[in-house]
Amino acid sequence: MSALADETRRLDQHDRLAEFRLRFALPLAADGSPALYLCGHSLGLMPTAAPALVQQELEDWARLGVRGHHEARRDWIGYAERLRPSLARLAGAREDEVVAMNSLSVNLHLLMASFYRPTGARRCIVIESGAFPSDRHAVASQIHWHGLDVDDALIELAPAQGAEDCDESQLEELLATRGAEIALVLWPGVQYRSGRAFDLARIAAAARRAGAHCGFDLAHSLGNLPHALHDADADFAAWCSYKYLNAGPGALAGAFVHARHRRADLPGLAGWWGHDPATRFRMGPEFIPATGAAGWQVSNPPILSAAPLLASLALFDEAGIEALRRKSLTMTGLLLGELDRHFSGQVQVLTPREDARRGNQLSMRLTAGRDAGRRAFEALGRMGVIADWREPDVLRVAFAPLYNSHADVARFAAALAGALADA
To answer: What is the pLDDT of residue 1?
Structure first.
């Protein structure tokens, strides 16, 4: 593994993104040294600029009270709009197609209220078998809300025998054969357990051919991969901001609605912040939706939650998602090569190896079994590695290029070898 350590040191010396690591607070291991943080797929690290931005909002609240809505350093009335340009760049969307609001599951509900409209035989929602539980809960409750039976109206597409997850061809086949029954496809950008990245344009096109709406949960992909939601012609998407977007626990989430859809033309749930800003404060009884995705807002944004997102998005703008993607592929490629050379028979990689099919995350199964795998995971923790275990037997690690270095790959490989020996 010394060859890997030498290679990663060389790469870090020439990495123009290396200095971004200094702009994040790195957690500490038990011995007080910096931990090896590989859990950005679950909670991103804090940008060091975030506390000052939050403190400024607290100071403006103390100094101005209600006047802060208009007179704060960053006026609170327009705070969500400040986030739109950066989010649009990450989503590959027009600025009026994105909005920062609510939390992920709330946004999915608001969007499905407009885009899941079962009629007659076209009543089904398609998700992947083993979807993130919150997505399944949301979908099942929407089906119940419409008075339908989940056993009848929910299609959970299972992987082919021996596969870890579904691929696009399976979804295309389902839509071709049962398309007349399908009202909505809700699919992830990246599968949370395996780390598989999907071709969103291909999925959206298949749904359109079948006459179904198509939405995406981008919780594990926005800030991880470049996106082109407008060109992909997706109907809608939603994401959280506490994973790769580094906005903090429970942070303000976001949504995309394609420009071809107008809130005024669709049913849905309304709240005052989705009202046209020009007349919002006339407090009239009629709901006149704002243009674009903003029309799906229901409440004013939580400023203290939005400030850390502002800090993080500035870093994405400075680094550029394409450069981050290149570094991400280099780091995961290095680890894949090391696993092949030194861990054959001990580790089964679940994440697809093709560049286009993976993001920052690599998922692996430790072949000694669940109990030994769990012991190895716990040994990694004692070595200062902060990773993630998914029952019954999956170890997940993510190399976030804003704050992970190439040397982190070599450090993890060495730690994994030691943990497997302990287990």
So the answer is: 63
